[in-house]
Amino acid sequence: MLRVIDPHIHLIDLQQGRYDWLKEVHAPHWPDKAKIRRDFSEADLVLETSAALAGFVHIEAGFDNESPWRELAWLERHCQLPFKSVAFADLTSTDFPAQLARLTAFSSLVGIRYILDENAGAILANELVRQHLRLLSEQGLMFEAQLPLAVPSAADALNQVLLSLPRLKVVVNHCGSAAQLSEHWMNGIMRLAQHPECAIKCSGWEMFDTAWSLDEIKPMVSFLIGQFGLPRVMLASNFPVSEMACSYAEVWSRYLNEMDWSPREKEMLVYKNAKRIYQFS
User: Fold this and answer.
1) Number of folded domains in the chain?
2) Rounded to a whole number, what is the distance in angstroms from the first to the last CA of the chain?
């Protein structure tokens, strides 16, 4: 049976957390967002019988951005599977060191995500943000970078961060927020792939096209493997946002059963790389 560590999921408890991004009045304004405006627990992470979920990485889900440690406390009370946490902390705030100190009290913490999106260039050029990323690097924590690599200024800004902080561990989310191959995206990928501490996750297809197909994503995944090398590429679900397109089991069935990987490639893309990068025992 093939083991899977899913390196990008979000669990939701609407009674305990805020989740402003799930409210209709807030971005992102996905037409199918109502489908995921409900509770999602570890019990919903069901794979087909040919695969077994060996663990997951929980990425901050906007539980409480004023007190982000509340999300980690909730996770550590409720989750039974092996898991790691990537928490929210405001990189632009002078309170970041204090937030980080509270978060590091939780054993599941491995990193921080502060969504950059279209503001990536300005945020990453901010000297206070650079200081906070240096603090992450010094503490051996990773930065989850969500930004559009098809925008040259965003890719340039992250490249400059990696040049100045070569020991900072960075994981790029959702293929660099790309829906298809493009010249700018490929140029951005090639620049970031030169940094050995940078890895990338393939996921988030449904955010651009809820009818995504393997034929559309195969060229992107192949390009990433060619640039980053197999050990720095991971396949992920983005559950429950992925539910806007298909079930959790279907996402992994497409990855495991319908894409033409060798057994070694498959094991690395869905298990071994995530286990190493996110420091599972």
Assistant:
1) 1
2) 20
User: 126 with 133: CB under 8 angstroms?
Assistant: no
C-alpha to C-alpha distance for 209 and 244, rounded to whole angstroms: 9
Among 37, 1, 7, residue whose Cα is nearest residue 251: 7
Low-confidence ranges of the chain (pLDDT < 50): none
Q: Which domain holds residue 78?
A: 2-277
Q: How far apart, in whole angstroms, are the C-alpha atoms of residue 168 and residue 153?
A: 20
Predicted pLDDT at 260: 87
pTM of the shown model: 0.97
66 residue type, one letter = E
**Kindly report the CA angle at 7 between 6 and 13, in degrees rounded to 5?**
80
CATH number where 162 lies: 3.20.20.140
Q: How far is CA 145 from CA 77, 148, 159, in A?
A: 27, 10, 12
Place of tokens 């996770």: 75
The two three-digit tokens of residue 269, written as one number: 């893309």
Measured CA to CA, the distance from residue 132 to residue 129 in angstroms comes to: 5
